[in-house]
From TrEMBL:
This is Uncharacterized protein. Keywords: Coiled coil. It comes from the Eukaryota. The keyword Coiled coil applies. Residues 36-76 form a coiled coil.
Length: 135
């Protein structure tokens, strides 16, 4: 028996064993087996795609939940800082030099700004600092 394919790749023993089972079978029977196997593979593929879609949906929900937990954690820290500084912050402060970008909180008398790394930072291009020449 030839164990080499035309591309000179060695055939696995499992394949050769499987092939030997079907060499003597009538074409009608091997066609039925192929159709049945093809149907099973399509069914399994649909199942995997469905599971994948569900997992993606669950992942998106978990990301949203994590973002809200981060925001809640930031809010708690901001409240604590407000109590320590004994000053109400300006929320969503937009200084002119930031060209429309906003700070999450700004304490005017102490000149302290708070910024959280949230979803808003994924929307802006931040490579400007790479263009600054080193001194």
């Amino acid at each position: 028996m030839n164990t080499q394919t035309k591309s000179n790749k060695t055939l696995t023993p499992e394949y050769l064993e499987w092939h030997n089972k079907f060499t003597g079978l009538p074409i009608v029977l091997t066609d039925k087996i192929s159709v049945r196997r093809n149907y099973e593979l399509k069914k399994e593929n649909i199942k995997i795609k469905t599971e994948n879609a569900e997992l993606k949906q669950n992942l998106d929900e978990l990301k949203k939940e994590l973002e809200s937990k981060k925001n809640r954690k930031f809010q708690e820290k901001c409240i604590l800082i407000t109590q320590i500084l004994n000053e109400e912050p300006v929320v969503e402060y937009r200084p002119s030099f930031m060209e429309g970008l906003e700070l999450d909180a700004f304490f005017q008398s102490n000149r302290i700004a708070l910024e959280v790394q949230g979803a808003q930072h994924r929307l802006h291009h931040t490579s400007w600092y790479k263009d600054v020449k080193k001194l």
